[in-house]
Every structure is written in C-alpha cells, then in structure tokens.
C-alpha cells in the first residue's frame, strides 16, 4: 500500500522552512541565480555553492539537465539537504509539461532515497522561467499525488505571494 504524502500549502519564504529537504529552483549551471536560487544560497551560505562546484567538477561537468535533481548540504538552513532541480523555461511553441513534472518527481525520488520525511517545494518555473502559475500548480499537485514517495510523509508547497497561494489552493481542490 503506497502511502500518499500529506500536501501542505504555506504562504512564506522557502528558506525559513524546517523540513528535511528544501528544493531549489536552480538553473543547469548550479552556480546560483536570483529568486529561490538566490535566497537559498544567500541564507544557506557558501557551503552549498562549494558542493555545487564540486558536482560541476565531477559527474555534472556539463551541468544539471532540465528535469533532473541533485542533493547537496543545506549549509546554514534549518533543512538537512537542499535538492536542486532545474525546471523548464515556459514555451508557447513546445509543451514542456513533462519536464516540469520530472523536476518534482525526481526531487521527491531523491528526497525519499535520502530518507527525508518532509520536503518543501517552491513553485518551480513560475518565476524567471515564466510558467503560468495555474498550470504550474496543476502539474505540481498532480505529480506529487501520483508519486510513490515513502518515507516522505509531508510535501509542503511554499508560495511567496498570496496570489500563488490562492492558485495552489484552487488546484488542490
Ligand atoms: N521562497 C519561496 N518562493 C519564492 C522565493 C522564496 N524565497 N523567491 C521567489 N519565489 C517564488 C517566485 O515568486 C516564483 O513563484 O518561486 C517561484 C519560482 O521562481 P524563480 O525563483 O524565479 O525560479 P524559476 O522560475 O524556476 O527560474 C529559475 O531563476 O533564480 C534563477 O538561477 C535561477 O536561472 C534559474 C531561474
């Protein structure tokens, strides 16, 4: 019997979450950026970037492909790990929904492998990468509901503004 994780919505800052895993909306370079990426590196401190650099010097020499996930230390954050994933840039010409779903699914799979019980996600790709919030929320919630995630028992979507929170709440149904 695959237990379904509880889905929790939080209106707040993902770097303030005390979950085992905090998921970063990274880019393929893994060398930082703005938004969630900037906040995680700023608050998590240099240990995170140092480990990202080691990954780039090792098996991720060409960067982290879109839809994949990799874990590092969480540095000074309350979490035990940061799982970095790269969402797709939204495109009107090409349907990249599967890549966005993959980012959530691979991050959950990796968190479960690490033994995490609680995971905090941002709304991946809905900022700089331009994904419409309602579609992003639909894909995020559907993917988590379909994933076999044990031992993960709580998946927390941390929404930065009220509009995003309301959109996710509507998608939860
Ligand atoms: N906590 C929670 N959510 C946040 C935070 C925060 N501290 N900061 C921003 N957000 C929200 C944004 O409002 C947006 O809804 O996270 C969502 C994702 O936005 P981005 O961080 O811009 O991520 P994304 O759209 O996936 O673009 C990734 O942006 O920062 C760069 O290096 C990153 O190149 C990569 C790209």
Automatic annotation (TrEMBL):
One GO MF term: O-acetyl-ADP-ribose deacetylase activity
Q: Which Pfam families match?
A: Macro
Signal sequence coordinates = none
UniProt entry tagged with the keyword Ligase: no
Keywords annotated in UniProt: Hydrolase
Q: Source species, please?
A: Streptomyces roseoviridis
Q: Which residues form the Macro domain?
A: 1-173
Q: Which domain of life is it from?
A: Bacteria
Q: EC number(s) of the enzyme?
A: 3.1.1.106
Q: List, alphabetically, the InterPro entries matched.
A: Macro_dom, Macro_dom-like
Q: Does the keyword Hydrolase apply?
A: yes
Descriptive protein name: O-acetyl-ADP-ribose deacetylase
What PANTHER family has UniProt attached to this entry? GANGLIOSIDE INDUCED DIFFERENTIATION ASSOCIATED PROTEIN 2-RELATED, MACRO DOMAIN-CONTAINING PROTEIN
Please spell out the taxonomic lineage of the organism that makes this protein.
Bacteria, Bacillati, Actinomycetota, Actinomycetes, Kitasatosporales
């Amino acid at each position: 019997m695959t237990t379904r994780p509880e889905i929790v919505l939080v209106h707040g800052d993902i770097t303030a979450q005390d979950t085992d895993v905090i998921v970063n909306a990274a880019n393929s370079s893994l060398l930082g950026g703005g938004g969630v990426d900037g906040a995680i590196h700023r608050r998590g401190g240099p240990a995170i970037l140092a480990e990202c650099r080691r990954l780039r010097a090792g098996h991720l020499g060409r960067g982290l492909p879109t839809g994949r996930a990799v874990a590092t230390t969480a540095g000074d954050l309350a979490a035990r790990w940061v799982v970095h994933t790269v969402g797709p840039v939204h495109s009107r010409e090409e349907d990249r929904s599967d890549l966005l779903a993959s980012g959530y699914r691979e991050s959950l799979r990796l968190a479960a492998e690490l033994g995490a019980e609680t995971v905090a996600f941002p709304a991946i790709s809905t900022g700089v990468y331009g994904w419409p919030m309602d579609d992003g929320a639909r894909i995020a919630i559907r993917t988590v509901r379909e994933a076999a995630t044990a031992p993960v028992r709580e998946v927390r979507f941390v929404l930065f503004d009220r509009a995003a929170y309301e959109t996710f709440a509507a998608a939860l149904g």
